[in-house]
Design a protein that fits this description.
Strand content: 15-25%
Distance between the termini: 59 Å
CATH topology of the largest domain: BirA Bifunctional Protein, domain 2
Number of helices: 16
Structural class: alpha+beta
Helix content: 25-40%
Strand order of the largest sheet: 1-5-6-11-10-9-7-8
Number of domains: 2
Number of strands: 16
CATH superfamily of the largest domain: Bira Bifunctional Protein, Domain 2
Largest sheet: 8 strands, mixed
Shape: elongated
Length: 432
């Protein structure tokens, strides 16, 4: 049987690597300038880290989407389904609450969920995640949203739609859950199976249903934003006021609900129409109380994440060119056995400035030039007994077809000029 990647996973091949590096470099630059430092956490944690954080009504739990396993000591471990819990575990473990606040951290890497595979959804997927911990002000919420918008804009993505709402304080959620139960329980049999379970565990999550029948039942009901308490409402109004002052475009979504139970007050999503009906690229919200729930001090925070694959999908749909893999400047062709070792050593020296590749066996000129062309190199540098006797190299431009005899002591400068697209008197003389 021919081996293949596990369903819901994929290989990132060499030609695709540059866009990943470019995305991370842009993210690192934009977030770094805002004082957000990078942190890396393990891809698996003790299962209780996620059990305490995501909430029993989250799809990760209800639909058994988390990948759990036991290690050799019988301990239950889970591959991370999202970043926040692991980052906050690190925040607690390393005493970051004593650092100057707010503590700003970002991460990137794979996450894992056993869900149905479809466009933009994988079982191993990748996220950029950002946490701003240690501040309760609306200013921090606005900064979090603005940073997400800034990163996506820095990647070249236009037409991003930001939706901002609020799920209120815990007491607001309790009141709203009671309101939904009273309204929906008489019609529970008409709800989808998933929504019936959400109605039992956390009615607020029914609003997140994509089922058309569920949405028809929800249509006449009030949304969380319409039933906020005074403090949560004032906080939300302050967040939107800052966003307006900063010129960050957004729309208010009264029904916005995040998929994890730890969110409170500000919740937001970013969408892009270019990736179809399921247009969300990512989102986040405030999670005051979560750090205490995980066993740390009662420190507030807000965070977000976006799916890297979904952003790539949006960039491709918007016609934003992906970064290209670096091709070798030159491929060194050995025309006899003596030149094989000679050119391998030369390649090592030239790599201090350029990407250089070389052959590992002697070739005749025709096959050597074919190897050079297949490597993607711009130049073929050939060496055999005649060139060795003359103290020269034959250098062929594989684009123009021009070929020059270049003295040994002029090769490095010839490559340097070729790389920058400039010419010198020596190059002109060679061309003549």
């Amino acid at each position: 049987m021919r081996p293949s990647a596990v369903k819901g996973t994929y290989d990132v091949l060499p030609d695709d690597q540059p866009r990943w590096h470019a995305l991370l470099a842009t993210t690192r630059r934009i977030l770094g300038r805002a004082g957000v430092d990078e942190i890396s956490t393990p891809v698996f944690e003790h299962s209780e880290v996620f059990e305490k954080s995501v909430g029993e009504s989250a799809d990760l739990v209800v639909q058994k989407e988390m990948y759990r396993f036991e290690d050799r000591g019988g301990r239950s471990l889970t591959l991370r389904p999202e970043f926040t819990a692991g980052v906050l575990r690190a925040f607690i473990e390393h005493g970051m609450h004593t650092w100057p606040a707010p503590v700003k951290l970002w991460s990137a890497g794979p996450a894992f969920r056993a869900e149905n595979v479809q466009r933009g959804r994988f079982r191993q997927f990748h996220q950029v995640n950002c946490e701003l911990v240690g501040g309760a002000s609306a200013l921090l919420d606005a900064e979090a949203i603005a940073l997400l918008v800034d990163v996506l804009a820095g990647l070249g993505l236009r037409g991003v739609h930001v939706k901002v709402g609020s799920v209120g304080d815990p007491e607001d959620r309790q009141r709203y859950n009671a309101y939904l139960r009273e309204a929906l329980e008489p019609q529970a049999e008409a709800l989808s199976e998933v929504s019936r379970e959400r109605l039992r565990l956390n009615p607020l999550r029914v609003l997140d249903s994509k089922d058309a029948g569920d949405q028809a039942l929800l249509a006449p009901l009030q949304r969380p934003l319409e039933r906020l308490g005074g403090e949560a409402r004032a906080h939300f109004d302050a967040v939107t006021a800052v966003l307006e002052a900063w010129g960050v475009p957004f729309e208010i979504d009264a029904s916005i609900v995040r998929g994890l139970d730890y969110y409170r007050r500000t919740a937001f999503e970013v969408h892009h129409a270019g990736i179809g009906a399921q247009s969300a690229l990512g989102g986040g919200g405030r999670y005051d109380g979560l750090i205490a729930q995980l066993g740390g001090p009662d420190v507030p925070g807000i965070g977000w994440a976006f799916g890297i694959e979904r952003v790539f999908d949006a960039l491709s749909g918007a016609g934003v060119a992906a970064a290209a893999r670096e091709r070798p400047l030159a491929y060194l062709v050995a025309l006899d056995e003596t030149a094989v070792a000679e050119l391998a050593q030369l390649a090592r020296a030239l790599r201090s400035e350029h990407r250089i590749e070389h052959g590992y066996v002697a070739r005749n000129p025709g096959k050597g030039l074919r190897d050079a062309d297949r490597s993607g190199a711009r130049l073929a540098v050939m060496r055999g007994s005649r060139e060795r006797a003359d103290g020269t190299f034959q250098v062929k431009d594989l684009r123009s077809g021009e070929q020059h005899t270049v003295p040994e002591d002029a090769l490095a400068e010839h490559l340097r000029r070729s790389a920058t697209g400039t010419t010198t008197d020596t190059d002109a003389a060679l061309a003549g």
